[in-house]
Write a structure and sequence with these properties.
This is Recombinase. It comes from Micromonospora haikouensis. By secondary structure, the chain is an alpha+beta fold. The chain is 32% helix and 18% strand. The strands form five sheets. It has a two-stranded antiparallel ribbon with strand order 1-2. Strands 3-4 form a two-stranded antiparallel sheet. Strands 5-6 form a two-stranded antiparallel sheet.
Length: 222
Amino acid sequence: MSDLPSASDKRCPQCERLLPTTEFHRNRRRADGLAFYCKSCAAARSEASRRKRGISAPKRAPVPVPTGLKWCPDCGDIKPLEDFPRTRKASGRHSYCKPCHNVRGRETVQRLYGGTREYHLRRRYGVGQKEFDELLAEQGGVCAICGGADPQHLDHDHRTGWVRGILCFNCNGGLGQFRDSPTRLARAITYLRGTTWQRALIHPGVYQMRSPTRGRRPSRLS
C-alpha cells in the first residue's frame, strides 16, 4: 500500500498530521482554497492569540437560535436577520444588531479619531481638524468666495481630490450645482449682467426674445 497522500488529504504544519481536507476551513485567498492550519489547531491558535491580547472568548447564545433569527452578544436579544447589517462574511450578517453595531461604530470613531468630525475629514479629504484650522486661518477665518464668517465646508476638486479651500454652505452648494464648471459659472455671470437674450413684452400676452445689445430693454411687467 502506498504511503503517498491522496488528493483529498493535507498536512497541517502545526500538528504535522495528514488530515482530510474537510478538517481545514475554506480560504479563497490561498492557492488550494484551504486554511493553512487544520480546524483544531486554528482554534487553539486563535484562543492563544486572544489570551495574549487580553480578549475574552466569543460569547455564545444561551439558548438555541431558530432558523431565520440571530442572537446579538451585546444586547442579548434574538432578532430577525434583517435587524443585522449585511457583510461579505460567510454568514452574510454582522455579529451585532444594527443599534449595537452603530454604538460600537461611534465608540471606535471616538477612540481612534476623537470624534466624527475628525473621522469625516480624514476619510473623505485626507486632512484633519488641525489642517482645517490652519487653512481657515490662512483665509482670514472667512469663506474663500464670499468672505462670510465662520465657513465650515471643505471644498475639493472632484477630479483630483485636492483640497481647494473652505467655503460657507451657500458657496459650497453653489459650486456643486454648477458642477464645478468655469464655463457654466461664466455664463451665469453673463446672464446676471443682462447681456444674454431675454424675453421682451411687445404686446399684452405676446413676448419676443431680444438681445439687449440690439433691441430695447425688456418691458417691466406689472
